[in-house]
Amino acid sequence: MPGENLSREEARERAALLSVDAYEVSLDLRSALGGTTGDGPRTFRSVTTVRFRCAEPGAGSFADLIAPSVTAVSLNGRDLDPGAVFDGSRIQLEDLAAENELIVDARCAYSRTGEGMHRFVDPEDGEVYLYTQYEPADSRRVFANFEQPDLKAPFRFEVRAPEGWTVWSNGAGELADGVWRFAETKPISTYITAVVAGPYHHVTDTYSRELPDGTRLEIPLGAMCRKGLAPYFDADDVFLVTKQGLDFFHEHFDYPYPFGKYDQAFVPEYNLGAMENPGMVTFREEYIYRGKVTRTAYERRATTVLHEMAHMWFGDLVTMEWWDDLWLKESFADFMGTFSLVEATRFTEGWISFANSRKAWAYRADQLPSTHPVTADIRDLEDAKLNFDGITYAKGASVLKQLVAYAGRDAFLEGARRYFKRHAYGNTRLGDLLSVLGETSGRDMTSWAKAWLQTAGVNALTPQVLLDARGRVEELAVVQEAAESHPTLRPHRVAIGLYRVDGGELVRYARAEADVAGARTVVGELAGADAPDLVLVNDDDLTYCKARFDETSLATLREHLGATTDPLARALCWSALWNMTRDALLPARDFVALVTRFAGAETEIGVLQMLHAWARTALVRYAAPVWRPEGERLLAECALRELRAAEAGSEHQLAWARFLASVASGEPEFALLRGLLDGAEKIDGLEVDQELRWDFLEPLAAHGLADASVLAAELARDDTASGERRQVRCLAARPSETVKAQAWAAVVESDALSNALVEATIGGFSQPSQRGLLAPYAGKYFAMIERVWAERSIQIGKDLVEGLYPWLQDSHATLEATDAWLSAHEAAAPALRRLVLEARDDLARALRAQECDAAAA
């Protein structure tokens, strides 16, 4: 990674000096086929012609390129010595003219890490598939360019590919004389250009809409995946959501989709959920479901489709100037993804999932030492890579949800419309958006932005109830708190709901909206109401906060949480209880008890699956070590009970089956899993498909009950790319010193594995049931992280530093070892230190929670 970074100041200086008129990129990908290439990386030819202007003729600058070699460089007709001007990541350009033409002929490397031009060989049939992934700055691994978002330009691609392949890019393409040539794009940033090539299974459709001016908009639609996934590809549902989204955005944005066609490729070994390349969106292929999944999985896919579609306007049409304002695209896309999901598709419960799942990501990120304002301080590309986090996405989306309430829905959407028309194909900063929102809402957006976008941290809101002699509410107040590290108390528009137990149900009987500001706010509208059994601050999820409970409310939830009739209110209560568990205010064993008592009655499948994940985390991270065996027994008994009680063939039954596999720890669970695998056991309605088989095999492997021969036999049954990943994970999960040493060496000492297999190996390596077996790797971790950060790509370095942190050695000794490394490596890369600091904070939080749990014994 040294030498590949780009600072914000360098980008600003270059943007002030240069403006780009056009790119022509020619790629020869025929080398993707064939055998091994010897000791060096497999490469392809990349020829780039860039036409650009210089504001100060005679000045110098640089172009970006990460490539094994450069064959030729020509600047304004002068041949430059590649060895003199190319250092492996930059091409130095001196004595620039007012108008310039740069031609670079290079050998670029195919990727195994999901960065740049990724090459995947399908083990099922030997077919080769290519796709690109660039954000934030990996297009320079495929062609020479000026790699920063504010140097936009039109792009024209041409690609030579193996015979029989199809190639796609941002623009429409045609094959002639063995060359795929693509229509010139509108001015776009380098990081959203794209190429997808291979023998993909391809399905087409068309979107049509009459525009306000009477013309008809026709958008060709395409969807593609590997041939091996074609039997599972429900393209009709993808197209349905796509058309619903295009209808929604055309209706509300008043700016026709500007990029011609709309292709969506589901690609293998993808690092992200998806990427908003205009006209050629890429998704991880796990969104094509090989087995039965719950409605939540389809909802998540639909949200992702709509998130990426929103980017066509927020991010692609109008792009942030630098990564500081990444929120201008990601926060908006995250918000608009759920906004459009609820209003335009069958997933009308989307805000429940947002409140319960998406916000949980934000709350965690906002309490890490690396938390930052939504508008962040991004010094360089390494900072940018790590800033695709819960703050930029989920907190930003939560704040925008509040902004809609603050500015008004109509004013918000009108502001968006003006923003697109005013800045189309340009770049913006925070002030550009605030100015249009100020115009349309008539409100002072500066103070709102300062409180919500330019300060970090999450506030906690707790109700205080004073009853009069008649047992009615004399005064109800909301107390606001903030962490010492981020002491800002913000203005909140909240709803406060009063609930009581009535006929065995917990129902709301009073509600008031109020503006909460400062340390304590009295809500006068609720004075005189009957005494509540439960006070829910932030009812209806209007603001971004950690809701707390008074003692009466908490006691009510312990007995009646499952009787809460409103699903959103119930989800908010669960979320608040989880935050209390993480903050060491509620013992982990109490949270587990609530799950075992009430989760079986949860109607919302997304909430149920979130509860399963939280319960397991509570057990393995936040419970006192001495209590864990009891907690394992309780969760396993609960999973068995609810699995057998669930409706035959229901998604709840499937969720409980997967949860049972994740918490299995004793012979009753293992015997059932083995029986379900070999057919000796049957549960009415439960179809044990291939994906569920792997789910059942992993805990058996981790407990020494499925050896390598069993896993080899399963791979023979599922000899696919998905099967290979699942087998690799299971192999690394086995409880053996030799196995752990081999897994460690495979990811730390070698770079032979692809990104997907690195992820699978790490996932199998770290098993909570194997804390003693993994103890020797704590010291090895701190000895290797600086080296791997220097030697590996940012993505793989991040995977290793995060995934191998010895959190299972949850002791103060591990905390001290982390502190010792941080003290001894103050000069380490800031992005690396950030990852270690985050892991340390998670461990410190876990230790505090364990102390809280132990005190409850």
Layout of helices and strands:
Layout: H1 8-17, E1 18-28, E2 43-54, E3 61-64, E4 69-75, E5 78-80, H2 82-85, E6 90-93, E7 99-111, E8 116-121, E9 128-133, E10 155-160, E11 166-169, E12 173-176, E13 179-182, E14 195-198, E15 201-210, E16 216-225, H3 235-253, E17 262-267, E18 274-275, E19 280-284, H4 295-311, E20 319-320, H5 327-344, H6 350-365, H7 381-386, H8 391-407, H9 409-423, E21 427-428, H10 430-441, H11 445-452, E22 460-467, E23 473-481, E24 492-502, E25 505-516, E26 520-522, E27 534-537, E28 546-547, H12 551-560, H13 567-582, H14 588-598, H15 605-622, H16 628-645, H17 651-663, H18 667-678, H19 690-702, H20 708-717, H21 721-733, H22 737-749, H23 755-765, H24 771-774, H25 777-791, H26 794-803, H27 812-824, H28 830-855
Parallel strand pairs: 1-10, 7-8, 16-17, 17-19, 20-21, 22-28
Antiparallel strand pairs: 1-2, 2-7, 3-6, 4-5, 4-7, 8-9, 9-14, 10-13, 11-14, 12-13, 15-16, 18-19, 22-23, 23-26, 24-25, 24-27
Helix content: 40-55%
The averaged pLDDT comes out at: 96
The separation of the N and C termini measures 49 Å
For the sheet with most strands, the description reads: 12 strands, mixed
